Amino acid sequence: MFRGRLILFSLIFSLPFVEVAADEGKEAVDPVVALQEELNGYIKERNTLDSLISTQETARAAAQKKFKETEKESLQSTLDELVKSVKALEGKCESAEKQTEGKSAELSSLETESGSLDKVIAALGPSVAIYLKGQQSVVNEYVKQPYSKIDLGWLENRRGLYSEHKGDGKEFDGTIKKLDNAIAMKKEIDGFNHILEVPFVYQDVLNARERIHEIGNKKLLNSQQWDEVYNQTDAYLSRYYNGLKLFQDVLINGFYGSTAEDVIVMNCDKIKDEFQKMLKKNQASIDKRIITVPYLNRKYEEYCRQVEENPCLGAANTDAAREILSIEIEK
């Protein structure tokens, strides 16, 4: 458009001057002057646009430079962090290597001591057998204790000594048999107690109780051992089912249902008060059926703490409650 204006200007300028009469007393306007003024306006506008474009180019170049500098600083910072992480890992590796070397030296020392001890025992020969014979009465008394006081490692250690030094005779056969029976029973009773430490499984509890009563009927334990297994392990197993039902039906679902509206309106103080009232009302059953079962007791403590910390979450939505409610109570 600008180029067209220039051509038009050239054509007009080449024509003979024609005076235009003024209308209504106004002076005539020289068209060449008018066109020149218009052309000057376009030139001024073009210069302004060129200036704006130049300013934008300068600003863009500055922004690109700043972005590159910022990106470079960010990359350098990231690199510095990586270098620090690598150095930290190298330090840990060096520490681990030193610990490994220390453990290797310790193991080597123990192996040396063990070898020396074997030589001493071998050299003693008959003396060791005499010592073990004198220890038979100690073994006999040890295996009569309640199984909560018996250490499996002690039994296995003695079993190994008597087997190794029994020779061709049979004088240690009775002691070895007692140790074998004690080891087997200790593992079995520990297994019963482990059931109380993990989430409820109906069939596991049923099998354990049936086996305990079989042990009682066969009189495989002395009176003090039986009292402990029957009055504690079997009693707690018998409460596991009802303790879980109490936890699910009353402490979680029952309380959650009774405070549902308070949860909606975020009446947290009221929920905390109602929670304490509910626990107090059921305290006797909680003490008997939940506290005596290690797994339930742990989850009960977690549940109470979580409800107290965030009552408006809703009792059934706590982590402990979700875990308890996920347990199948029937076989």
Which SSEs are present, and which pair or pack?
Elements (H helix, E strand, L loop, with lengths): L1 H13 L16 H94 L1 H9 L1 H7 L9 H13 L8 H23 L6 H16 L5 H36 L1 H5 L3 H14 L1 H7 L4 H16 L9 H7 L6
Helix pairs in contact: 1-2, 5-6, 6-8, 7-8, 8-11, 12-13
How would you characterize this protein structure?
The chain has 331 residues and is mainly alpha-helical. It has three domains: 2-13 and 33-85, no CATH class; 125-177, no CATH class; 196-331, no CATH class. It has helices spanning 2-14, 31-124, 126-134, 136-142, 152-164, 173-195, 202-217, 223-258, 260-264, 268-281, 283-289, 294-309, 319-325. α6 (173-195) packs parallel to α8 (223-258), α7 packs antiparallel against α8 and α12 (294-309) crosses α13 (319-325). The longest helix has 94 residues, at 31-124. It is elongated. The two termini are 92 Å apart. Mean pLDDT is 80; it is low at 5-26.
Helix fraction by DSSP (H/I, runs of at least 4): over 70%
What is the averaged pLDDT score?
80
Task: From the alpha carbons, calculate the radius of gyration and give it in angstroms.
Answer: 47 Å
Q: What is the CA-CA span between the terminal residues?
A: 92 Å
User: Rough shape?
Assistant: elongated
Major sheet characteristics: none
Number of extended strands = 0
| Fraction in beta strands | under 5%
How many domains is the backbone divided into?
3
Order of helices and strands: HHHHHHHHHHHHH
- The SS-based structural class is mainly alpha
Spans of 5+ residues with little confidence (pLDDT < 50)? 5-26
**What is the count of helical runs?**
13
